[in-house]
Amino acid sequence: MDGTQKKAPKDAPETTANTQVVTAYRLTDGVVIWLTGDNTWSEWVEQAAVGTSAADVEKLTLQAKAWEARNQVYEVYPVDVTMREGKPWPVKMREVMRAQGPSIHPQFGMQAERGTQLKAAAYTAAKKTERGERKENREG
User: Fold this and answer.
1) Which residues contact 68 (CB under 8 A, 6 or more apart)?
2) How far from 61 is each of 7, 9, 36, 78, 103, CA to CA, in Å?
3) pLDDT in tens, 9-64
4) What does the buried/exposed string (b/e) look like for 81-103 if buried means 16 or more CB atoms within 10 Å of the residue's CB?
5) Long-range own/partner contacts, residues 63-70 (CB < 8 A, 24 or more apart)
6) Residue 68's pLDDT is what?
7) What is the DSSP secondary-structure string of 18-80?
8) 82 beta partners
9) What is the pLDDT of residues 67-119, one digit of tens each?
10) How far apart are CA 113 and CA 105, in angstroms?
């Protein structure tokens, strides 16, 4: 294994995710936004319009690209999601982090508004020093 990605055979069918939503950044402030069913934008992925076929996703992407052409949003692209309690949630960690908001601390930003906290073990694990005490972010 040399680490390079292997190409699919030419006769293999094109694979697309069964369930996707469309995301972008709001141009005025850079906030992550999600295209909704009424062709508006929401800061919450749970309110995003869900495409269940390639044609659905293409339609949503074209709607979002129209917003991009009017300089309202930028970096439009579809995101794979799973359905949780009837609402979409991103599959990949990058998109989960974008959906949850800034990762500085769960008490700030979108996490506080949503009433949830980050569940990533990397953020909750305490690092120990040689003396066994918790290592804090401190200078010196």
Assistant:
1) 24, 74, 76
2) 26, 27, 11, 7, 27
3) 444 333 344 799 999 999 998 899 999 999 999 999 999 999 999 999 999 999 99
4) beeeeeebbbeeeebeebbbbee
5) 63/22, 63/35, 63/39, 64/22, 64/24, 64/35, 67/24, 67/41, 68/24
6) 95
7) SSEEEEEEETTT--EEEEBTTS-EES-GGGB--B-SHHHHHHHHHHHHHHHHTTSEEEEEEEE
8) 89
9) 999 999 999 999 999 998 889 999 998 998 888 876 666 666 665 565 543 34
10) 12
Structure tokens at 5: 């990605």
How far is 104 from 118, CA to CA, in rounded Å? 10
Scan for tokens 């069913």, then name that residue.
37
Alpha-carbon dihedral angle through residues 52, 55, 56, 61, given to the nearest 10 degrees: 130
Q: Give me the residues paired with residue 34 across strands.
A: 23, 42
Structure tokens at 46: 């749970």
| pTM higher than 0.70 | no
Q: How many CB atoms lie within 10 A of CB 23?
A: 24
